[in-house]
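Re-running the complex after MR caught last week's input typo. The corrected sequence lines follow. Everything else is unchanged.
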Amino acid sequence: MKAPRFAYARPASIAQALALLAEHKDDARVLAGGQSLVPMLNFRVAAPKVLVDVNRIGALAGIKVAKDHVRIGALTRHVELERSEEIARHLPLLSQAMPYVAHPAIRNRGTFGGSCALADPAAELPACALALDATFVLAGKKGERRVAAKDFFKGLYATALKPGELLVAAEFPRAKAGYVSAFGELARRHGDYAMVGVAIHGSTKGGKFSQLRVAFFGVGDRPVRAAQFERALDGEAATPTAVEGALAKLDADLQPRADLQASAATKLHLAKVITGRALRQMEGVAS
Amino acid sequence: MNAAAETLEVSLTVNGEQVKRSVPARLNLADFLRNELGLTGTHVGCEHGVCGACTVRVDGEIVRGCLMFAAQADGSTVDTVEGLSDSREIEELQSAFVLTNALQCGFCTPGILMAAQALLRDEPNPSRERIREFLAGNYCRCTGYQAIVDAIEVVAKARASRGGR
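Corrected-run output:
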């Protein structure tokens, strides 16, 4: 189908965008890359009266490397993350995840901030933000506020963004020496939404796992940390045997719900398969 | 453009020609190209970004024509399969598609040509696996893809043998 009628505005600055959001309140939605919102409009599951197109706000775009963190502007396209040498160096988990994010033509248009603000539970980037302990920067009429990834994702398509607020960026702590990442995902067709996926970050210094952060997507209403699994591996030798022994902990960490793709039991099984696979291939894990 | 409007003036370059139109905000780029400009090579299949039949180039990069509004292309350069065909940019690909029987009904072909050309432009000598991965965003319901991968591989090899051109 086609999108329903709406009015379109294209602000040139964050201040103008905030003014439009304040003016139109619940009638307005932010249009970033549009790779999820436009299908929702075409399906008529969303029918905002006003679209605020933020695509020409230069202040929202780009990747900036600071001393202790990397700031990713909300309007940074997936393709920029995919090709960025700075991201590969400082946030290798994101580089590993990008090939799984939809298809090339969609990555040319889709944005980092759009994916996080939509908070689709089967999307890759929210889980990466959780695994990497990112902080989201939200702009509102009263200025900026910061929300940690663990508090940002509130549920199915729900985030900490309040009406009238705009996601402007996320700040990721730079990966420290000895820290490594791994990523795994299963989808019916390469690039489609995940049946289940996992984003992993942590240390294998001295041949031992420590500070592991393991975030799943496609298994609940939001990205989920696997706390018991992380604890089971903490301080253990970074070996396939240790990984294999800890996988049963995921029974307690994950309560996947059946969806069109797979039953709950299948999802739990597949979560273990991809976690084992990802960790066995992670740098610093004995082969 | 800081006040919300349901009708917008757009000015863009399509296949090298300057175009000005007044468009409803809800008109997507693929429908704009087809219905306003008569460029019906860009096909509209699923209308939600899954099938890839509406693939066009905006400012040099391939996008889904159904997931972008014409109003958003204001000031941009858009290339469609007609433009790439007329400029002979995809001549070799077109010949290879015929040679290897890489199309049957042809509905997906314009989108696949756009995607294939984008791949070969950035990666002159992709493996078959890489071709399949890149084309995962384009559905074909006739061929089973084998012949499409063959066609793109034929062109890649021919270009590689000429030093990547």
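None of the earlier attempt is carried over here. Chain B has two domains: 7-84, 88-161. Residues 88-161 of chain B form a domain with the DNA polymerase; domain 1 fold (CATH 1.10.150.120).
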